[in-house]
Amino acid sequence: MDLKLEVLRMDVKQFRKENPRVLTRLLALIELTKFRQKHGVLSEQDRERISAKFEATGRTLYRWEASYGKGGVSALVPGKSPGRKASGIRGHTARKVREWRKLYNWGAEVIQAHLEHDHGIKVTRFKIERYLRRKGLFRGRRKKLKNKHCQVVKVEHPGAHTQTDVKHLPHLLANRTKCYVYNFKDHASRWSFKKAYDSYGPAETKDFFQCVLSAAPFTISRAQTDNGVEFTNKYISHCDDPKIHVLDELCASHGIRHVLIPPGEKELQGLVERSHR
C-alpha cells in the first residue's frame, strides 16, 4: 500500500494536540513510508524494527496501515473497548449496605462477608465500594498524620541538652542473662556514655549519673529523660503525693535542670533512641 507523506504530515499537524495516540500511529506510518520510499522493499524484520520504536508490534503496524488505507485518519482513532456494563446494587442488597455502613461503619470487605454469610448474596468488594462512593458513604484512606516533631534543633554548647534512657537487652552479657543498659547522649558534642546493670531503678539511676558526672568532659546543665519510674515518681499511680526522686535530688545538688518529656512522645528522645541501635 502506497501512502503519501504529504497527506500524513497534514494529518500529524491536525492531531498533534488533539489525540496523542493517533499522533503516535501517524508517526509510525510516516516512518514506514520513508523506509519504503528509500529502500523499496520492506521485510518483516524491518517492520518489526520500525514498530518497536513506537512500542508496538509488526502485526499492529499492519493493522494501522490497513485501517488508514480504508478510512483515513478517522480510522486510526481508537474506539471504545467492548464489554458489559457494570450492574449496580439495588433493592434489598442496597438497603442492607446502607444500613450496615451507617450503623456500624463497616468497610466493603466486612459488608461483602455478611451479605454472603447471612443472606447468601455474592457481591464483589469493588462493586460495594463503587456503590458507597456514589452514595457519599465512602471515605478514602486516612491521610497519615504529619509528625509534629520535625523541627531540627541545633545546640552549640555541650551539656546544654542531654538525653538519657534505658534499653532492655536480653542476651548481651557473657552468661546470656538479661541486662539493662543506661544510655546518656549529649546533643552538641554527640558524646555518649553507657553502662549495663542487672536491673533498673532509682539506685541504678543514681549510680549511673554519678558515673556520667565524673566521666563527662563538660559541665551538664540540662538532663532530659522519659517518665519511667527509674527517672521520676511523678506518674506513680498509687501515690497521691509522690516523694522526690533521687535523680531530682542529685540534679538539684549539681545545679542540673531535670526535664521530663510529655508522655507518649518518644520523638523528643530521638538522639538516645537512635543510639540504642
Description:
- The chain has 277 residues and is α/β, with parallel strands linked by helices.
- It is 43% helix and 11% strand.
- The chain has helices at 5-15, 20-39, 44-53, 58-71, 91-104, 108-119, 125-134, 202-215, 246-253, 270-275, and strands at residues 162-169, 179-186, 192-197, 222-225, 257-260.
- A five-stranded mixed β-sheet has the order 3-2-1-4-5.
- The radius of gyration is 37 Å and the shape is elongated.
Short description:
This protein has helices at 5-15, 20-39, 44-53, 58-71, 91-104, 108-119, 125-134, 202-215, 246-253, 270-275, and strands spanning 162-169, 179-186, 192-197, 222-225, 257-260. With 277 residues, it is an alpha/beta fold.
Total number of helical segments?
10
Please report the total strand number as a whole number.
5
What do we call the CATH topology of the largest domain?
Nucleotidyltransferase, domain 5
The mean pLDDT is 86
In total, the number of domains comes to 3
Judging from the principal axes of the Cα atoms, what is the shape?
elongated
Strand ordering within the main sheet: 3-2-1-4-5
Helix content: 40-55%
Q: What characterizes the major β-sheet?
A: 5 strands, mixed
Low-confidence stretches: none
Radius of gyration: 37 Å
Give the CATH architecture of the largest domain: 2-Layer Sandwich
